[in-house]
Specification:
The protein has 405 residues and is an alpha+beta fold. Helix content is 45%, strand content 16%. The chain is built from 16 helices and nine strands. The strands form two sheets. It has a five-stranded mixed beta sheet with strand order 5-9-6-8-7, with helices on both faces. The longest helix has 18 residues. It is globular.
Length: 405
């Protein structure tokens, strides 16, 4: 069984405590998308003994930071302060989770701010393209939805809905991690393990529906494309080969995407791979933005690259380079205490070894080109495409897409 308390051996003059709560936006109810994000934001707006301004002023007066973030698989609370103040601030974690005020007037403010943020997000075409892509790939699955919710749903969420969701929140499994020894001497009743299950765990592995293309038209000088599919969870044996592939495609100026789209053809404004880890099937997509003048050729190059990924072995020399870059990325992401603790508490919350990344480093050399080709054939043979831009160009790309896939 994974320990709930994990300390780092490095001595520092500041302390960090992080709490991971299982069950994030993926358990938002139908018609209530965004409810857990609103609830979690509201937790940071006052607790027993501290109303909203008093709460923030108390934290600021000690030069501390308290952050709350809602993700698909869970929620993360992070408290950071100098060691000399940590003992005064640590009880806030308990109060935030067990004794929040959840005031109606603060709920209305959070609700309004969330709606305003969602309106701003709609102005970003990348958000629009990804939203359409996600809904295609994760049809009827919780990952299909924005963690912040949707304006129509949020307008219908009431204060009573938040209070009811909080009762559910209290039952969820919670995990604490810190570099401070004071944690050992502190009792946290909310860390008691409960029988909480995410019932929304079905995933569309065999997509039999026809629509794998989405297009949004806008008056723009660029075309944005996102091509990809869902893959595996972080706990899968297929996770590491996909990370090596991501490194091969997108890490640094030696990467395939940089050389192909920027260095050789000077095509893109932006290009990269999106492959975050998830408790269930993670997305893997290549995103690309090109000028209208080069949209068609950019699309053709992208499709040719995708076809090569499912038909050709990557040369051993390039695989070895990708492994070196991936090893470096693991080490770089473990440079700061914040990164180390956040990564580890999420691993613990997902029932994985907190040293998962270091274990991956030991296994990298066992992966070869055949392993990667096998996995790309499994997940990339029927990709999904979402695009944004000029209607005429989008229609041309759609026609070409339909002929290919």
């Amino acid at each position: 069984m994974i320990q709930k308390y994990l300390k780092t051996k490095t001595v520092r003059d500041f302390s960090i405590a992080m709490i991971w709560i299982n069950g994030g936006s993926s358990i938002d109810g139908e018609g209530k998308k965004g409810i857990n994000n609103i609830l979690f934001t509201l937790l940071g707006r006052g607790c027993k003994g501290f109303e909203n301004l008093e709460f923030s002023e108390y934290i600021d007066s000690h030069g501390a930071e308290l952050n709350l973030e809602t993700l698909e698989d869970g929620m993360l609370i992070s408290l950071k302060s100098l060691n000399e103040h940590f003992y005064k601030l640590l009880p806030l974690l308990d109060l935030t989770i067990n004794k929040p005020l959840l005031l109606s007037n603060q709920f209305q403010k959070v609700k309004k701010n969330t709606i305003n943020t969602l309106k701003k997000d709609k102005e970003n075409p990348f958000n629009i393209v990804f939203e359409k892509w996600r809904k295609l790939v994760y049809l009827k699955h919780p990952y299909a939805y924005n963690s912040s919710g949707y304006e129509e749903d949020i307008r219908n969420i009431t204060h009573d809905d938040i209070l009811n969701e909080y009762q559910n929140f209290k039952k969820r499994n919670k995990y604490l991690i810190s570099n401070n020894l004071l944690i050992n001497n502190k009792s946290f009743d909310f860390l008691n393990k409960n029988n909480f299950e995410n019932k929304n765990n079905s995933i569309q592995k065999n997509c039999k529906y026809v629509n794998r293309f989405a297009s949004t038209h806008g008056d723009s000088n660029q075309i944005i494309l996102m091509l990809g599919n869902q893959t595996c969870s972080q706990s899968s044996l297929e996770y590491l080969p996909l990370k090596i592939l991501e490194s091969h495609l997108a890490y640094g100026m030696s990467s395939v995407l940089f050389k192909l789209f920027r260095e050789k053809n000077g095509l893109t404004y932006d290009v990269g791979v999106f492959n975050p880890f998830r408790q269930k099937n993670s997305p893997f997509l290549i995103y690309l933005s090109v000028s209208n003048e080069k949209a068609i050729i950019g699309f053709k190059i992208l499709i040719n690259l995708w076809e090569k990924l499912i038909s050709d072995l990557i040369p051993k020399k390039e695989i070895n380079l990708a492994k070196v870059k991936l090893k470096s990325s693991f080490l770089i992401s473990n440079q700061t205490l914040d990164e180390i603790l956040q990564r580890r508490v999420r691993l613990i919350g997902n029932d994985l070894d907190p040293d998962f990344d270091m274990n991956c480093l030991k296994k990298i050399e066992d992966i070869n080109s055949e392993d990667i080709l096998k996995i790309t054939n499994k997940y990339f043979s029927k990709p999904f495409l979402s695009i944004y831009g000029n209607e005429k160009l989008c229609n041309k790309i759609k026609e070409s897409w339909m002929n290919k896939f």
